[in-house]
Amino acid sequence: MLKGSFPIKEFEGLRTPFYYYDMALLRSTLDTIKDIFRDNPNYRMHYAVKANNNPRILRTIASYGFGADCVSGGEIRAAVDAGFKPSHIVFAGVGKSDEEINLGLDLGIARFNVESAAELLVIDELAGKKGIVAPISLRVNPDIGAHTHANITTGLAENKFGINYEQLPGVLKLTLGLNNVKFLGIHYHIGSQILEMDDFAALCNRANFVTEKIVRAGVDPGDINVGGGLGIDYHHPNHLDIADFKSYFDTFRRFLQTRPGQLVHFELGRSLVAPCGSLISRVLYVKEGTSRKFAIIDGSMTELIRPALYKAYHRVENISSDEPEEIYDVVGPVCESSDVFAKGVSLDKCHRGDFIAIRSAGAYGESMASGYNCHPLPGSFFNE
Ligand SMILES: *Cc1c(COP(=O)(O)O)cnc(C)c1O
Question: Parallel, antiparallel, or unpaired: how do β-strands 89-91 and 111-114 relate?
């Protein structure tokens, strides 16, 4: 079976499960983006911190000069600690608390991506108390359905995110009438794990229309933030280990109309960090059921919840064995029937103690780990 290459000897003394990060792959991913941006000087990257907030991952991304997209005060702090400049931090989220807004104001972050009229009024009030003007973009819900899992679609009118497309003129008018906020642009984010470039083309068309309407109303449209959402190939981590950034950015180059000097912000998360991470576990037991065989591993939904939460697929590899393949259900020890990583998959014959790699787990893996069942949080191993 085709497998990733891992420094297994170095894993011997480590407590499993842990996250393994291929830092060379992360750097070549970041280099790819940097190269594309060299030809597009009006593009800006804000890494979506929620995908992976491991300090070492954050520091590596910050060292490329990219900004950060945060969805909480905790993420803003983590980003600043890792070396992201506050002036390169944007802050989104439907439920920003007063404390979080004040933190953003005090640090002087680049932008509040505002998701409702109610939030706008609070930001105006809190900024007014400090005698400052808050830089804001309005997050518009473009009512575009991305072809992805229902739980990770964010751009439909029925989602909780953003300001309804029809309500934008009213909220824009409200913004322009307030003293302590400054309108600087429009923000979009239509979902995650999107592989259809047509979805991004549809976003561009909608954004062009919105910009035109704002300009026609005599208002400076500011910049455009198109959010994140580019997907990766979870099925072939050994063939396609870098996301299709070329098609993605080509789509925006082709379809998004920009005015001279207008900046375009991107907020990619998953596509930057998913491929470089794997969850490494050990086989605890091989259990023969009546009709199937279980590989019971020490990794579980508390370290990687995506399969349980979204029925997400991750490729599973036995990286210790090279005996002929057998068919297994790969399950964790947690007392939930959904604590299953894969059903009926071929793995090189499993033995107690074998290392199992669950691939493409660098995004929404470690950052979503919990302490359920009193499991300790997973450690991490960086292969420089
Ligand atoms: C989660 C999120 C992103 C990143 O999404 P990916 O699918 O990981 O690229 C970007 N922007 C906002 C506002 C988000 O909430």
Answer: parallel
Domain that holds residue 351: 8-18+275-383
282-326 pLDDT, tens digit per residue, is 999 999 988 899 999 999 999 999 999 999 999 999 999 999 999
CATH number for 232: 3.20.20.10
How many Å lie between the centroid of ligand 1 and the Cα of residue 137?
16
140 CA → ligand 1 middle, Å: 14
The count of domains in the chain is: 2
Q: How far is ligand 1, taken at its centre, from the CA of residue 349, in Å?
A: 38
Same domain flag for 259 and 336 = no
Of 17, 87, 23, the C-alpha closest to 52 is 23
Distance (angstroms) between ligand 1 centre and the Cα of 63 equals 20
The closest-lying atom of ligand 1 relative to the alpha carbon of residue 270 is 8
Ligand 1 atom at minimum distance from 113 CA = 13
Verify that 89 and 201 share a domain, yes or no: yes
**Burial readout 25-40 (b: 16 or more C-beta within 10 A, e: otherwise):** bbbebbebbeebbeee
**Do 217 and 81 belong together in one domain?**
yes
User: What tens digit of pLDDT does each residue of 166-197 get?
Assistant: 899 999 999 999 999 999 999 999 999 999 99
Q: Could you identify the atom of ligand 1 that is nearest to the CA of residue 267?
A: 10
